[in-house]
Design a protein that fits this description.
The two termini are about 15 Å apart. The protein has one domain. By secondary structure, the protein is mainly alpha-helical. The protein has a two-stranded antiparallel ribbon. It is built from three helices and two strands. It comes from Methanosalsum zhilinae (strain DSM 4017 / NBRC 107636 / OCM 62 / WeN5). Pfam families: DUF1059. InterPro entries: DUF1059. This is DUF1059 domain-containing protein.
Amino acid sequence: MKILRCRDLGFNCGFITTGYDADELKKNMQEHIETIHRESFEKMDEDDKEDIKYRMDFLLSRGCGCGAL
């Protein structure tokens, strides 16, 4: 089981998505960010958006699946 926390991506938010498919977790988190944090997300430059994607990939690649940095 893998865990992805919105807080670990830099948002002050308790949203957590869990599952076994990394692509599905990334999709769920991206949808959450684009809807719930839309205003903040739209103000970010492309480097910050890419950093969020990198963090998701990094967290989901951890062998323990805990999502902790």
